[in-house]
Amino acid sequence: MKILSDRRHGVERVPRGNLDVAYVRAGRRGTTPLLVIPGGPGMGSVLPYRRLRRMAANRGFDVIMVEHRGVGFSRRDRAGVDLRWEDLTVAAAVEDLVAVLDACAVDRAVVYGTSYGGYLAQVLGATHPQRVAAMVLDSTYASVDDFDLCRAYLRRLLWDGDDPTTRGVAAALRALVESGKVTDDETAVVVPLVYEIGGVPLLSKLLMAVGRGRRRLWDRLAALVTGELSRIRPYVMEFDLAGAINFREAYAQKPDGLPLDPALPFASIADRFPSFIGEPIDAPAALRNFTWPVAVVSGARDLRSIPAVAQRIRDLTPHGVLVPFDGLAHSILDNHPAAALAIARQTTEEHLHLLPTRTAHLAALRGRGKVALGGPLMNLMLTGSARDPRGERVAGMLGVDLPDVPDRSPSS
User: Fold this and answer.
1) Which domains does the chain have, with CATH numbers?
2) For residues 299 and 306, what is the distance between their CA atoms, to the nearest angstrom?
3) CB-based burial of residue 220 (10 Å sphere; 0-12 exposed, 13-18 middle, 19+ buried)?
4) DSSP codes joined into one string, 217-273
5) Which of 173, 305, 343, 399 has its CA 20 to 30 A from that of 134?
6) What pTM was computed for the model?
7) Which 3-state string (H, E, C) describes 272-286?
8) What are the pLDDT digits (tens) for 334-389?
9) Whose CA is closest to 260, among 131, 174, 137, 354?
10) Between β-strands 12-16 and 19-27, what pairing exists: parallel, antiparallel or unpaired?
11) What phi and psi values does residue 87 have, to the nearest 5 degrees?
12) Read out DSSP for 322-390?
């Protein structure tokens, strides 16, 4: 794997044991800095979020991002060797954040964490509350038990069809499984992804296509999503090493033998990683002691951190508000970075209570992420003929762009 230059990408480093942890900083100094913690574990911070940092700098932010240990610029120790399993812990990842704040001479920051990054934000708040000025918890979780809630919700929605809006697609999915046209492993990765990206209309089109024998898009999605857990994309997604944090401290769900089980793909690779030993903190208890403004952000189509989990987190925080988005899915930071930055700006004691009333305005802001292209691209693949040059061009684009969809790790 080619090692990239720190200088070319604006990377600074802070000594942390046997690792010089990498970070980047951009924008205007003099304001309360914004510490952005992306999802993962395995997602890079430096390369995937260059556009976000430019956007933040143009909006007057002083933004700091730390490369997760075990990933990209923070993957290797000083000898150039991959970090060991024992180096990869939630506690160490949080202390990396603190060390970078110290190196930047930042006493307190607005902390924006999405998914796994939101969990790190909670641990940071529990262990170093004096470093937090305000917090945005985007599409995150507070306990491994939350994943069981999400699995039950996924099944009620897309297998049982308890919601009238999903009754038709649930019936179509059950028919495909019962006929043997799709497998349990495939549905576990493809169905949640397509629903998150395009909702019922896109999922319905895809299921109809598969029922007619048109499996091209279905097969491509199954391969891409499954590959995210084993394929290394240097400096972008490196779950192969950082996944140790996920399996040891952040994810304990096992397959239960029932349909539409998001635990299936992770069970297939679990033996490559350390076993689960327990959560590092009692995050639900810690949330009750957060004295700063907290915006809990949730997308209505999120199946990895469902709206009910977001509501629970909001209810635990003394100074929190729920900021729901009807048309978005997992990680507002990745789906709609302009809205995410606007939320970060307004998560103050003065403006916090107004955020829930501004979601329509925030959703309408210009500046969607690359994830937003997924729905239109898939629609064109499903509606264009095999000989349509536009369809072929979109298929090529899909093969390149889909990995930029937020990874399907349960803590992402």
Assistant:
1) 12-144+278-363 (3.40.50.1820), 147-228+372-404 (no CATH)
2) 8
3) middle
4) HHHHHHHHHHHHTT--BTTTB-HHHHHHHIIIII------SSSS-TTHHHHTTGGGS
5) 305
6) 0.92
7) HCCCCCCCCCCHHHH
8) 999 999 999 999 999 889 999 999 999 999 998 777 666 677 677 767 776 444 44
9) 174
10) antiparallel
11) -80, -15
12) EEEETT--S-HHHH-HHHHHHHHHH-STTTGGGGGGGHHHHHTSS---GGGGHHHHHHHHHHS-TT-HH
- Tens digits of per-residue pLDDT, 251-271? 999 999 999 999 998 998 999
Contact 39, 122 (CB under 8 A): no
Residue type, 341: L
Give residue for tokens 């192969």. 240
- Would you put residue 260 in left (φ > 0), alpha (ψ -120 to 50) or beta? left
Single-letter amino acid code for the residue at 172: A
Query: Nearest to residue 194, comparing CAs of 166, 162, 232?
Result: 166
Q: Quote the distance between the C-alpha of residue 12 and its chain's center.
A: 24
Q: How far apart, in whole angstroms, are the C-alpha atoms of residue 63 and residue 242?
A: 24
Q: Provide the β-strand partners of residue 35.
A: 64, 111
The answer to whether residue 402 scores a pLDDT higher than 60 is no
Q: Say if residue 392's pLDDT is above 60.
A: no
Q: Rounded to a whole number, what is the distance in angstroms from the first to the last CA of the chain? A: 24
Tens digits of residue pLDDT in 233-252: 999 999 999 999 999 999 99
pLDDT of amino acid 384 = 60
- DSSP assignment letter at 166: G
Question: Is the model's pLDDT at 406 over the cut of 50?
Answer: no
Q: DSSP strand E in 86-164: where?
A: 109-114, 132-138
C-alpha 402/C-alpha 81 separation (Å) is 30
Looking at residue 72, the DSSP 8-state letter turns out to be: G
pLDDT of the residue at 408: 59
